[in-house]
Every structure is written in structure tokens, then in C-alpha cells.
């Protein structure tokens, strides 16, 4: 299997509109971060998208991705779902509703934000989604077992997803001991890390992530959902403890 980072930025992306800091004005493409999303390619070449934010169209074109077989949604915040309308060309091409897997709460929010996709009589140019409500239990789709990992993002529950010995978690500020058991001794763990300093009410910062790395002991840890406050990619990546890396848009991981 393969995971590709379509975006590794926070809800504002990097560069941030109007910001002139050294990260936002960097010429290094690794310092430009679209909103966080990944594409998982299965052993059978099926495409599993995790989150569909406002940069979805740009991400698909930039990374030469042409299909999505299913989408997993972590939660309902706009930087993770508001790009769903841009799935229309994929839906029109196959003639099938796009399967979305998520909490029932998230599914209800999708219905509110895209009511025209669920109308009894849909406009011919509207998208069409097939909602699959999931709970915190493993499920199999596209011949792939997927294990949800429930984390806390401020005051709401969010799903991360585990495939084989890789787990992807974004928008987390707390992981319970029960859920940590799913994350121990992985080959690859991907965690959100919004900045280096100053505790955040909803997201891990670098000291939190280093502590989790020492506790969970993955072979490799990649940081995502990164803001301009974390610093320049090429500077900060070299200063991280061995085994921890900054992800960047377009990075691919085989697992």
C-alpha cells in the first residue's frame, strides 16, 4: 500500500494570506502547505481519500490523481469536508454516488452543507454521495481492513484511521490510553503538530508529539497539519529527534 500527502497544512494553509514571515515567504516548495488530506492506494490500486478540504481540486490536479473510490472523513470542520462538491467530475465519470465513511454526526453535517446532493430531485449537475455511518470498530471496504482511532479535538471526537501498521491522525489534542493501544509499535505513525511552542486547546504541539513518539515507539513518525509557526521545513526537519520527520505536500510512503 501507499500513502501520499495531498496537503499538510492547517485550516489557513501555508502561506497564510497577508503574512510576511520567513515561512510564508519561503521559496522552498516544502514550505507551501495545502489543507491536510492524504490519498491511500491499496494493493489492488483502489484509491481511498482521507478528508476533502477546500484545496481538493488543486491537490488532485497537482498530484496527478484521477480517481477516488471512497472517502473517509475525520470530522466535519470545513478544512476537512468543504471540497466535497469538487468531487463532481469523479462522480459524473463513474455514474455512481461517492461513498463517504464517517461518524453519523459528520454525515448529518455533510447533509446540511450540501443539501442539494441529497435532494429527492437533484439538479443534473449536483454531486451525489452515499453515506456510510461508522463507529469505533474495524470495518472492511475495498478488501482493506480499516481501524478507526478515536481522538479528541478540543471538545469533539475525531476519527483517525489505521491501515495495517500505519495510522493517520489529524486534528487531535488528546488520545485516551485505550486508543493508544492501537498505535503502539507501528511502522508509521502520522500525527498533527501545529507549532513548536505555546500549548494549543485543540492540537498537539511539538513537545506533545515527541512525548507520544517516546511512548508509542513507532519506527517512523511523520508530522502533518503544520502551521507557519513550526518553522522552515529544511531547518526544523534536521533538528527533530531521529525517527521523526516533517511531512510535506507530495511525500509518498510505502507500507
Automatic annotation (TrEMBL):
Protein name, as recorded: Phosphoribosyl 1,2-cyclic phosphate phosphodiesterase
The species this protein was found in: Chryseobacterium takakiae
Span of the signal peptide: none
Protein origin, superkingdom: Bacteria
Domain Metallo-beta-lactamase: 47-226
Sequence intervals crossing the membrane: none
The organism's taxonomic lineage, starting at the top: Bacteria, Pseudomonadati, Bacteroidota, Flavobacteriia, Flavobacteriales
A Pfam family: Lactamase_B_2
Amino acid at each position: 500500500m501507499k500513502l501520499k500527502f495531498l496537503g499538510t497544512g492547517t485550516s489557513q494553509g501555508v502561506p497564510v494570506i497577508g503574512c510576511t514571515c520567513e515561512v510564508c515567504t519561503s521559496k522552498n516548495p516544502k514550505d507551501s502547505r495545502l489543507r491536510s488530506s492524504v490519498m491511500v492506494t491499496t494493493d489492488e490500486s483502489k484509491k481511498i481519500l482521507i478528508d476533502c478540504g477546500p484545496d481538493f481540486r488543486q491537490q488532485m490536479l497537482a498530484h496527478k490523481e484521477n480517481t477516488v473510490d471512497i472517502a473517509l472523513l475525520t470530522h466535519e470542520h470545513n478544512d476537512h469536508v468543504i471540497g466535497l462538491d469538487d468531487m463532481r467530475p469523479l462522480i459524473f465519470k463513474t455514474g455512481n454516488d461517492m461513498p463517504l465513511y464517517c461518524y453519523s454526526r459528520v454525515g448529518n453535517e455533510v447533509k446540511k452543507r450540501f443539501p442539494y446532493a441529497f435532494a429527492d430531485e437533484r439538479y443534473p449537475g449536483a454531486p451525489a454521495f452515499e453515506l456510510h455511518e461508522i463507529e469505533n470498530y474495524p470495518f472492511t471496504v475495498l478488501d482493506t481492513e480499516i481501524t478507526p482511532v478515536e481522538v479528541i479535538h478540543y471538545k469533539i471526537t475525531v476519527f483517525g484511521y489505521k491501515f495495517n501498521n500505519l495510522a493517520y491522525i489529524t486534528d487531535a489534542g488528546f488520545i485516551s490510553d485505550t486508543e493508544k493501544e492501537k498505535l503502539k509499535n507501528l511502522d508509521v505513525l502520522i500525527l498533527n503538530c501545529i507549532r513548536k511552542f505555546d500549548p494549543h486547546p485543540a492540537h498537539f504541539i511539538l513537545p506533545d508529539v515527541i512525548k507520544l513518539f517516546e511512548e508509542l515507539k513507532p519506527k517512523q513518525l511523520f508530522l502533518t497539519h503544520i502551521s507557519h509557526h513550526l518553522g522552515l521545513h529544511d531547518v526544523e526537519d534536521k533538528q527533530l529527534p531521529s525517527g521523526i520527520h516533517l511531512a510535506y505536500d507530495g511525500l509518498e510512503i510505502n507500507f
